[in-house]
Amino acid sequence: MTEETAADETGLAALALRRVPTQSRSREKVARAIEAAEDLVRREGVEAISLPRVAAEAGVSVGALYQYLPDRDAITAAIVARYHGRLEGLLDAVIEQMRASPSGPDAVGRVLRAVADIYQDEELARSLGTVRAGSAEARDARRAHKARMAEKVGALLGLVGLLDGLAADQASAVARVAFTSADAVLHEAFAAPEAERELLLAELERALRASFRR
């Protein structure tokens, strides 16, 4: 196994790191730091992130992390990249489940519940949903993530027959609008108190049902 392959297997190569660590000891420290940063975000929010704080939480030196995660923006970008990867992996799993059993009543409800469950299960969604991408690279990464998610939502909609009869470009546009709308509302909903959350989810479902009533 090459050092590059080892880095890929840890998942670090896919993150927005200043440098990808190649030595196993460095990879372990960076992975531990990102885990500590995620825990910190869950407990105290994104505002608590800083290089000294994350290093202390992870039990590593600031110097050991600086070449990979030099500042708050870099740490946040790495957390967001890993969070995006998890969302995409979870949605891939839903697609496989739906592919095994594509038929059934209430197609809109099935897709919405499947996507909502992913956001609800991801605790970081409540904290990271409002993070604004700072650098051009971070903005590009977020746009690429949203494009991949929209494509996956399109696959779900296609599996349950909601894109039947549409040309490819129109089907792609429908999937993009459906995902963009749901993504914004779901992040808001799972950051809100429970009563408000239920109202937002109900309104999202009503809007999606109306849009697919053809």
Q: Top keywords for this entry?
A:
mainly alpha, Arc Repressor Mutant, subunit A, 10 helices, 214 residues, Tetracycline Repressor, domain 2, 0% strand, elongated
List the helices and strands and how they pair.
Blueprint: H1 3-10, H2 24-44, H3 51-58, H4 62-66, H5 72-100, H6 107-121, H7 125-128, H8 136-159, H9 168-189, H10 194-211
Helix pairs in contact: 2-3, 2-5, 5-6, 5-8, 8-9, 9-10
Written account of the structure:
The chain is mainly α and 214 residues long. It has 2 domains: 68 residues, Arc Repressor Mutant, subunit A (Orthogonal Bundle); 131 residues, Tetracycline Repressor, domain 2. It is built from 10 helices and no strands. Helix 5 packs antiparallel against helix 6 and helix 5 runs parallel beside helix 8. Keywords: DNA-binding, Transcription, Transcription regulation. GO terms for molecular function: DNA-binding transcription factor activity; transcription cis-regulatory region binding. This is AcrR family transcriptional regulator. InterPro entries: Homeodomain-like_sf, HTH-type_TetR-like_transc_reg, HTH_TetR.
